[in-house]
Amino acid sequence: MPNRPTLESWRTGVTLIRPNEIRYRGVPIDEVIASWSFPATVWLLLAGSRPNAGQEDAIRRVLVAACDHGLAAPSIAAARTVASTRGAPGVAMAAGLLAFAGPAHGGAAGECARLLAEIRDGASAWPVPAAEVQGAIDARLASGRRVPGFGHPYHPRDPRVSGLMTSSVEGSGFRQLAREIESIIAQAKGERLAMNADAAVAAVLMDAGMPADAIDLVTSIGRCVGLAAHVQEENSQEAPFRAPSLASVEYIGPTAEAS
What we know:
Elements: E1 15-18, E2 21-24, E3 27-28, H1 29-35, H2 38-47, H3 53-66, H4 74-83, H5 89-100, H6 108-121, H7 130-142, H8 161-165, H9 173-189, H10 197-207, H11 215-237
Antiparallel strand pairs: 1-2, 2-3
């Protein structure tokens, strides 16, 4: 049961700070700085444990895959637009993260993770029997609900999926589940709705033991790197004030005040 909120005291199990001492989840900061990789540190802080080799491999792949998707991504376009006003770089990055969080963008990985967890929790066995996966997806499609993590506006075959799904992490139940969903959707909707990076991210991180509600945190950390690169490029190579040209804006309101 969560503690009642209070302003008089704060509790944390993440980082210990005392005079001349810093520990991440109990691990001395000098040890982390000297020998831990960044992906392993992210795992430690989010999951609360030292990652094994497979877990570190899984989160490394996700962080790399999440970094950037070019100017076509709303998060990158938002960050560069704000950067063009020449405000603080951190503000431009924050704008990008705000755009990234939506379920139609970076938040789709978390949406897919929750779907995978829902199917697992309602199943009679693990891995989930194929007939039960079929029933869950058929019911979702029949109700008109979309299946997050499948289909992409630019990629008939998302080039990030292979590198994510071939992680060396132990356990493959969620990746197997994602592949079965892909097959069911392909039969129902067509090949154009192949698995995208969001489904692959959710599956590989959940196979690694990352909770579904932490998936979007991992991808947001990765996207910060791409946002930083684009903000730097916008500030150093482009003229200020990025905005649509008037010729590209179509006005669809009344041309005169209604009488």
